[in-house]
Amino acid sequence: MATRVQFENSNEIGVFSKLTNAYCLVAIGGSENFYSTFEAELGDVIPVVKASIAGTRVIGRMCVGNKNGLLLPQATTDQELLHIRNCLPDSVVVQRVDERLSALGNCIACNDYVSLIHTDLDRETEELVADVLGVEVFRQTIAGNILVGSYCQFTNRGGLVHPHTSIEDLDELSSLLQVPLVAGTVNRGSEVIGAGLVVNDWTAFCGLDTTATELSVIESVFKLRDAQPSNIVNEMRASLIDTMS
Amino acid sequence: MAALGKRKAEKSPTPSSEEEEEEAGNGNEVTSGSEELDSDESTDPEDELNTSSDSEHSSQPSQEIVDVDFEYFDPKPNDFHGIKALLRTYLDDETWDISGFTDLILAQTTVGTVVKADEDESPIALLTALNIGRYQKCSCMVEIHKYLRVKSAHKVESALLEDFWGKYAREVALLISERLVNAPLELAPPLYQGLFEEILWATEDEPTQELRESFKIKHYLYLTKVFEEVTEEKSRDKEQRKQKEESEATGQLIYIKPEDEILHELSSWSFTFPVTGDGAAANQTKGLQQLRLVMAVDAKHEEKFQAELKKLIE
After folding, report:
1. Which of A40, A121, B201, B221 has a 20 to 30 Å separation from B167 between CA atoms?
2. pLDDT tens-digit map of A125-161
3. pLDDT at residue B278, rounded to an integer
4. What is the CA radius of gyration of chain B?
């Protein structure tokens, strides 16, 4: 299910929030509408945490995470780090990264198994990404853009990339990531997918300007139409039965 | 009507520029520049280069002349994001239907102009007029009305404003003029000339009688940004007494768009109110307070306005 939402007149949802399968971070805004929309959709299943990073509200672009971990830039203050660590589930490893390219959300895109990173990212950061997030790391560009985190958004079920991505690139990325990919736009023609859309395995949020066509593309490529949060519970059930037998 | 005219402006950064003060007051990062038209005798490219080579001795980076052509276009659907960006602070930090408002402007192809450096670029300036009676029922117009009503409460002009949205709605147009902070002043005269001409043509060319009538505009309602000088004592008083809205400017008003001053002089009535958004606090420290100015201008002052504007440029 995809929901349209706005953060104080801005349609760039992905700048002010970060959504994964295990938690959701939202920025502290003027009105409670933004937070309550996320709470309404996700509140029963995963924690929705209000946070700031380095005193800013652009948390979606500063951090990167999945169900295994969360990476924060060096500029994150100790209080912010402590607050986030306390509110997130214990299984999520929260780590600060000393990296020159500090807007991690723009440089790294990931799901629970695979990640794409900026071509100029440090080797140490690459290793941290592999360890903390528990993913395979690939240095890639998207439609010639090195800011992979800004121009694509993918989950364990599908992905949306910059509209000018060529068919060859799409095939290559799709085989790397092992998920179906589609080149498209969000927020009425905006190419910056990472800023306009946040998505996990069962729900997505995008800006108010997103057209019905864009929304239906999002719902179909991310397979949101029949998705239920219980899918995660089912996975757990399978492993529980394993141990019993 | 593709391009109404081309203005060639030479951007030559000079150390002292009056524009810089206003722009610094905005807290925006701006490359200072004074605009000079090609036809002026004073500028000679080689002279500029000679003077700029002197500045190489100083720590400033070497200065270049940048030629920019500005072209005038009708608003097109592609301009949606650019126009929306220009209108972002129209109602300060209020949450309202900016997308719907932008759609209204784009839909009105007969009246309205957008200035761009090139057809595929983002808009630099926007000027259009929306008849209040015609668009009254749209949600964005309702929100604008509500905002202005709240901001004008307890003011003398409140009743006059209500009339504009009530019994005179069909004769009043909301004038929307937004541009980038450092856009040259020379853009304004052709913009306004174009607007008044298009409105005149619309009274003859529109397909239905109702539409033709809607362009017979008697008054313009204009909402714009201005600054007010705040002296040290005043700001201390304000803190003690809590900011009260002033219906007359107690300090000197600084107009971001120079033609606003002419319009203000010609206006039938006007009022100002302080803003609460992001810009407010930043500017306070520099001795300038950002305000919004609402004014009503009678349409019969059109020619006088254009004459005064022309004088201002020269």
Report:
1. B201
2. 999 999 999 999 999 999 999 999 999 999 999 999 9
3. 65
4. 20
Tens digits of residue pLDDT in A170-196: 999 999 999 999 999 999 999 999 999
Lowest-pLDDT range of A4-18, A81-95, B64-78, B278-292: B278-292
Which structural domain range is residue B154 located in? 71-220+302-312
In a domain, B178, yes or no: yes
ipTM (interface predicted TM): 0.78
Domain ranges of chain A: 2-235
Q: How far apart are the C-alpha atoms of B123 and B129, rounded to whole Å? A: 17
Out of A30, A189, A209, the one facing B99 most closely (by C-beta) is A209
Residue B208 lies in a domain: yes
The CATH number for B214's domain is 3.40.630
Cα–Cα nearest to A105, from A169, A11, A178, A17: A17
pLDDT score, position B48: 39
pLDDT at B30: 35
| Distance in angstroms (rounded) separating the CA atoms of residues B153 and B122 | 37
Q: How far is B124 from chain A (nearest CA, A)?
A: 19
Total domains, chain B:
1
Q: Does domain A2-235 have CATH number 1.10.10.60?
A: no
Provide the residue count of chain A: 245
Residues of A in contact with B93 (CB under 8 A): 8-9, 30
Q: Enter the pTM of the model.
A: 0.76
Average pLDDT over residues A107-131: 96
Neighboring chain A residues of B98 at a CB cutoff of 8 Å:
9
Backbone φ, ψ for residue B6 (5° rounding): -115, 130
In a domain, B21, yes or no: no
From B80, B81, B95, residue closest to A9, measured CB to CB: B95
